[in-house]
Automatic annotation (TrEMBL):
The keyword Acetylation does not apply. It comes from the Eukaryota. GO terms for biological process: tRNA wobble adenosine to inosine editing. Residues 1-20 form the signal peptide. The keyword DNA damage does not apply. Pfam families: dCMP_cyt_deam_1. This is CMP/dCMP deaminase, zinc-binding domain-containing protein. Residues 48-158 form the CMP/dCMP-type deaminase domain. GO terms for molecular function: tRNA-specific adenosine-34 deaminase activity. Gene3D superfamilies: Cytidine Deaminase, domain 2. Keywords: Signal. PANTHER family: CMP_DCMP DEAMINASE, ZINC-BINDING DOMAIN-CONTAINING PROTEIN, CYTOSINE DEAMINASE FAMILY MEMBER. The lineage of its organism: Eukaryota, Amoebozoa, Evosea, Eumycetozoa, Dictyostelia. It comes from Dictyostelium discoideum.
Length: 239
């Protein structure tokens, strides 16, 4: 009787484990071909070009004591707007840096289609901002620190969904139906260490979370899987 119970639950766990590995978020929608869209690896001149603009948002962040700073740059190299998260100042927590610069560019210059522009941001865009970026038709996004680093390494509250993942679902959005290219980790050696704080030990900070992060290469999760399989086999043998 107990053996059957163990067998039943072990099998249930195994089935659950196998199902949880599948990448079906909603059975009604098909999963994009590429999730996430790979970050474009840039080198040489293109990298130094982006580093120049990233340095400007970093400098702005340091000057203002801000974390999230974004700018919008025309493809001819003109930076049309730079600003920071104004959530607290404006008492409107949707005023993330990306939203602020998109709305400013619209108010100042009447731009609503950003296909000729690149958005720079010190930190990878959240779901809300990446959504706004998709709907505004940006062709390129360049960020410093990743959501993964902010959440897993710095214990900062986040929706831990990569901007590339959301972007992969952006059917018909982006620059004339092309989803934006996302270039991550530009000058992250600076943004990771000099712009963003580590909240892991800041017990009173409103940003602090206990991140639930797994290392896909850590054998301990595959160990659970092997253990369950073994348990089922052993129970079968002795039943
Ligand atoms: C570059 O683009 C900006 C924004 O559209 C425009 O104001 C500026 O005149 C352009 N500069 C050049 C040199 O074309
Ligand atoms: C934005 O402009 C580009 C280039 O002119 C065009 O291909 C695209 O369709 C426009 N997007 C929207 C949503 O109008
Ligand atoms: C960060 O990386 C850039 C490019 O790889 C390098 O030029 C710069 O010196 C580095 N800065 C720091 C503070 O490590
Ligand atoms: C943060 O906490 C960890 C362990 O909880 C400790 O090892 C580390 O030294 C602490 N770091 C700081 C900056 O206090
Ligand atoms: C896991 O290991 C593989 C092979 O060594 C490597 O290609 C991959 O980047 C690793 N993944 C992570 C998230 O570290
Ligand atoms: C693997 O994951 C376990 C449990 O989450 C953790 O305790 C351990 O430190 C991880 N090992 C490595 C090498 O990251």
């Amino acid at each position: 009787m107990n053996k059957y119970l163990v067998l039943f639950f072990a099998t249930l766990c195994l089935v659950g484990k196998v199902l949880s590995c599948e990448n079906g978020m909603n059975p009604y929608y098909s999963t994009p071909e590429q999730v996430p869209v790979p970050l474009t690896a840039v080198t040489g001149d293109e990298l130094s070009y982006h580093q120049g603009y990233m340095q400007q948002v970093i400098d702005f962040a340091k000057e203002k004591g801000a974390l999230f700073v974004a700018s919008i740059v025309h493809k001819n190299g003109t930076q049309i707007v730079i600003d920071m998260n104004l959530g607290r100042q404006m008492k409107d927590l949707t005023q993330h840096a990306e939203i602020v610069v998109i709305q400013k560019a619209n108010a100042l210059y009447g731009i609503s289609n950003f296909s000729d522009y690149t958005l720079y941001t010190t930190g990878e865009s959240c779901l809300m901002c990446q959504g706004a970026i998709l709907y505004s038709g940006f062709s390129k996004v360049v960020y410093g620190t990743s959501i993964k680093t902010l959440y897993c390494d710095k214990c900062m509250s986040q929706v831990p969904i990569d901007s590339t993942f959301l972007t992969a679902y952006g059917y018909g959005l982006g620059d004339g139906w092309n989803r934006p290219t996302i270039i991550g980790g530009v000058l992250s050696n600076i943004t990771d260490n000099q712009v963003f704080k580590n909240y892991c030990n800041m017990t009173t900070s409103i940003f602090k979370v206990h991140p639930l992060c797994v290392d896909p290469n850590n054998s301990s999760s595959s160990l659970t899987f092997s253990f369950l399989t073994l348990l089922i086999l052993i129970t079968y043998l002795f039943i």
